[in-house]
Design goal:
two-stranded antiparallel sheet; Arc Repressor Mutant, subunit A; alpha+beta; three-stranded antiparallel sheet; single chain
Length: about 160
């Protein structure tokens, strides 16, 4: 890995070989293909993640949803108000624990996902064609391995 040496004695990875920067660059290249689609349906990237997670796991509390959608809890709390006002999700106090809020996708939220999915799938297929299905699958496997290693290093 190439390093940049500074006159103050610090040594950092060159930005072209920095894991955090490389991950951000790839994310931006991927998301620039999806953003116009999401914007045309009036949802942000973060809102879309929330809707997708709630489609996969129909009933989650705020902290589990924040973790699954990779959002900070205060951001999710603000966001859910707007999604609820638009009729895309419902929120309710969790049974047995009035401090916890349970979130669910509504029929309107499900309909939005159904409406967006064909074009989203087409964008994903285009990326797969450009990059290669095998490379994408290998990258996903490697990223999962990195996440597991970092999670295990915490313990």
């Amino acid at each position: 890995m190439a390093n940049s040496h500074y006159t103050d004695g610090l040594s950092l990875s060159a930005t072209g070989r920095s894991l955090p920067i490389a991950l951000l660059r790839v994310r931006e290249k991927v998301m620039e293909r999806f953003r116009p689609l999401l914007q045309s349906h009036g949802v942000t990237e973060q809102q879309w993640r929330v809707l997708r997670v709630l489609r996969e796991v129909p009933d989650l509390d705020m902290s589990a949803l924040a973790k699954a959608a990779n959002l900070l809890p205060p951001s999710l709390s603000r966001m859910t108000k707007g999604l609820e006002e638009r009729g895309l999700i419902t929120t309710a106090r969790a049974a047995g624990d009035g401090r916890r809020t349970s979130l669910r996708l509504t029929a309107n939220g499900s309909a939005l996902i159904t409406k967006v999915t064909p074009e989203s799938s087409a964008i994903s297929a285009e990326i797969e064609t450009i990059v290669g299905r095998d490379k994408i699958q290998a990258l996903l496997d490697q990223l999962e391995s990195v996440l597991d290693a970092l999670d295990n290093a915490k313990a």
